[in-house]
């Protein structure tokens, strides 16, 4: 399968690298947003697909990253490159405390605690107007290039390549992580946490670590979105975004890393196409999601690899 999928991934990467040369500005805007959402969905897959920690509040990571990056770009004059990674780091550090609290519970209780934390931040974002701008949010977020030769990042193409580099870098980090002994423990927690604990592993510490890593990557996605859109508002912390991220993971294929990226692109495509036809686009996408859950629970990536496997056997 590696011999079959590797050339496909190389072709896709080449297409993404050459995209600014051939796509119109509107298509490039959609593609950039799809890559940001792909990074966000992939970050959630670390928890959902590899550790079976179902989060209903992953928008907290996205919103924290967006607000932190937006505030730094607006009020400190920090260069874009440093603001993005500082926001991701800050989100990851805060997530250590979030993970410590949420992992006191398991199963649906864990999920509800993540939702409660996200909704708490959502409420704070309305009240802490001096920092978050209240219901208006932070507007006019610039792409400050800074004095160190990062001026190319302020342009559309330069920023697109920056987003693509963050997505590829995040994927490589996640890939190395899940293939490491740390990843093996995460899969052990997913399959049988009691047995993993009996083997001598402190599973709660591993879960806190994966929550912090997942939130840091989700915060990176949010930090990229703020200068991309030019604003950060309370909708980035709302439970609806958390649900959409979970849908992207499931539709793309949980526990695959590549699948959630495809799921995010598929979600963006369907939202754009269906919303141009009807205001009730969410209803029709809901039917598509139900079809995936019932007939293709392995997701888009699972369907693609199964088809390639059958094709390879036939040849």
Label this structure with key terms:
single chain, mainly alpha, two-stranded antiparallel ribbon, 77% helix
Helix content: over 70%
- Outline: globular
What sequence of helices (H) and strands (E) makes up the elements? HHHHHHEHHHEHHHH
Largest sheet: 2 strands, antiparallel
Mean pLDDT, all residues? 90
As a percent range, the share of strand residues is: under 5%
Radius of gyration: 19 Å
Strand order of the largest sheet: 1-2
Uncertain runs: none
* Structure classification: mainly alpha
User: What is the count of DSSP helices, taking H or I runs of 4+ residues?
Assistant: 13
What would you note in describing this structure?
- The chain has a domain at 28-236.
- It is built from 13 helices and two strands.
- The chain has a two-stranded antiparallel ribbon with strand order 1-2.
- By secondary structure, it is an all-alpha fold.
- The model has no long low-confidence stretch (mean pLDDT 90).
Topology of this structure?
Blueprint: H1 2-22, H2 25-51, H3 59-75, H4 80-102, H5 107-127, H6 129-132, E1 138-139, H7 156-178, H8 181-198, H9 203-229, E2 231-232, H10 239-252, H11 258-275, H12 281-295, H13 299-314
Antiparallel strand pairs: 1-2
Helix pairs in contact: 2-7, 2-9, 2-10, 2-11, 3-4, 3-5, 3-9, 4-9, 7-9, 8-9, 10-11, 10-13, 11-12, 11-13
């Amino acid at each position: 399968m590696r011999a079959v999928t590797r050339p496909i991934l190389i072709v896709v990467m080449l297409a993404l690298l050459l995209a600014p040369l051939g796509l119109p500005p509107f298509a490039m805007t959609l593609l950039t947003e799809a890559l940001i959402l792909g990074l966000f969905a992939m970050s959630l897959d670390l928890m959902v697909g590899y550790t079976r920690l179902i989060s209903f509040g992953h928008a907290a990571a996205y919103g924290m990253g967006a607000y932190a990056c937006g505030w730094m770009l607006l009020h400190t004059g920090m260069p874009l490159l440093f603001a993005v990674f500082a926001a991701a780091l800050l989100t990851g550090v805060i997530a250590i405390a979030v993970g410590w609290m949420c992992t006191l519970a398991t199963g649906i209780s864990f999920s509800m605690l993540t939702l409660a934390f996200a909704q708490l931040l959502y409420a704070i974002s309305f009240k802490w107007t001096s920092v978050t701008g209240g219901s208006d949010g932070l507007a006019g977020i610039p792409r400050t290039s800074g004095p160190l030769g990062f001026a190319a990042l302020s342009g559309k193409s330069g920023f697109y390549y920056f987003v693509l580099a963050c997505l590829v870098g995040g994927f490589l980090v996640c890939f190395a992580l899940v293939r490491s002994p740390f990843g093996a423990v995460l899969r052990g927690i997913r399959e049988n946490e009691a047995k993993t604990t009996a083997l001598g592993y402190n599973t709660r510490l591993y879960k806190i670590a994966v929550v912090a890593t997942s939130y840091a990557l989700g915060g990176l996605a949010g930090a990229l979105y703020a200068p991309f859109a030019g604003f950060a508002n309370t909708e980035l912390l709302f439970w609806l975004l958390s649900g959409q991220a979970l849908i992207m993971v499931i539709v793309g294929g949980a526990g695959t890393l590549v699948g959630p990226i495809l799921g995010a692109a598929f979600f963006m495509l369907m939202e754009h196409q269906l919303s141009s036809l009807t205001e009730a686009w969410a209803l029709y996408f809901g039917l598509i999601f139900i079809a995936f859950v019932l007939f293709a629970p392995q997701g888009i990536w699972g369907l693609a690899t199964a088809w390639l496997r059958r094709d390879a056997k036939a040849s």
